[in-house]
């Protein structure tokens, strides 16, 4: 893992030249949670140049459940050279743009179901994965949702390369605790243990890699019940509050479930907070080792 200096990889905020593999994709995530956990959501733009389409997801939840969503798995790719990566579909238009590399990024959505105009501002640094081309950025988030002011926190990430949604399961989690500490951890179920990507950011401080990160999930049927995240010297339990799931169908009609959820996080030292966790479930996921 590496902590990315702001002067490094400046071009990686932009679109990459695609590989030739059918499952090559470029992915941008933006998630957000109000400070009190009463409103949250996420946006994902996935570019699939070899399929000649884009996937666009935008979901909004409250503690009562899914409040609104825009899900399009057949959006036209953004026009070449469009810095805002604009996508349009039935009843919606969406765009996103980063200004200074690794600085603020703005996301807009106008739709029949949901309207967003939000800005993610980097808080504490940028974290680059070593297992795959990807980086994560903890952020403060401000703007408007359906025209009403919003202030909270979240994370944005950017990855590119081959992603097989229908063969590998994983857990990914991101949160901020009540004292301002950001947490992030991820692990894939590959049948072996690896130095998994994870970091913490202390209140007002700088991002630091969390070596030795581990996670264990329990399920209630197919639905995740809780995940215990173990950072150096700290265990934190993530429990789902409201799900915003997506179903993914491959060109060969394989079906994967993607139960992403707003979670409440409770640390063993008494701190608490909110964030997002995902537990990807491809075909046969129960045979994978969810540790």
UniProtKB/TrEMBL annotation:
Domain DUF7065: 14-163
One protein family per Pfam: DUF7064
Top-level taxon of origin: Bacteria
InterPro entries in the cross-refs: DUF7064, DUF7065
Residues of the DUF7064 domain: 165-283
Protein name as it appears in the record: DUF2804 family protein
Record organism: Actinomadura luzonensis
Lineage: Bacteria, Bacillati, Actinomycetota, Actinomycetes, Streptosporangiales
């Amino acid at each position: 893992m590496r902590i990315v200096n702001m002067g490094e990889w400046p071009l990686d905020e932009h679109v990459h030249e695609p590989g030739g593999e059918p499952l090559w994709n470029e992915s941008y995530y933006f998630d957000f949670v109000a400070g009190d956990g009463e409103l949250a959501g996420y946006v994902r733009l996935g570019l699939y140049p070899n399929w000649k389409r884009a996937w666009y997801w935008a979901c909004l939840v409250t503690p009562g459940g899914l409040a609104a969503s825009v899900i399009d798995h057949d959006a036209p790719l953004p026009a070449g050279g469009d810095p805002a990566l604009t996508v349009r579909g039935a009843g919606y238009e969406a765009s996103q743009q980063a200004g200074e590399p690794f600085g603020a990024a703005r996301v807009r959505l106008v739709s029949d179901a949901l309207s967003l105009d939000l800005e993610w501002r980097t808080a504490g640094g940028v974290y680059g994965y070593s297992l795959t081309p990807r980086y994560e950025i903890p952020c403060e988030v401000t703007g408007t949702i359906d025209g009403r002011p919003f202030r909270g926190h979240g994370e944005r990430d950017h990855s590119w390369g081959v992603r097989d949604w229908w063969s590998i399961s994983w857990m990914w989690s991101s949160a901020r605790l009540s004292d301002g500490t950001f947490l992030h951890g991820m692990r894939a179920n590959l049948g072996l243990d690896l130095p998994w990507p994870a970091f913490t950011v202390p209140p007002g401080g700088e991002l630091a890699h969390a070596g030795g990160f581990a996670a264990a999930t329990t399920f209630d049927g197919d639905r995740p019940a809780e995940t215990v995240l173990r950072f150096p010297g700290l265990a934190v339990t993530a429990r789902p509050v409201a799900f915003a799931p997506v179903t993914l169908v491959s060109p060969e009609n394989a079906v994967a479930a993607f139960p992403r959820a707003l979670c409440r996080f409770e640390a063993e030292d008494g701190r608490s907070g909110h964030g997002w966790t995902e537990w990807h479930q491809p075909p046969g996921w129960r045979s994978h080792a969810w540790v």
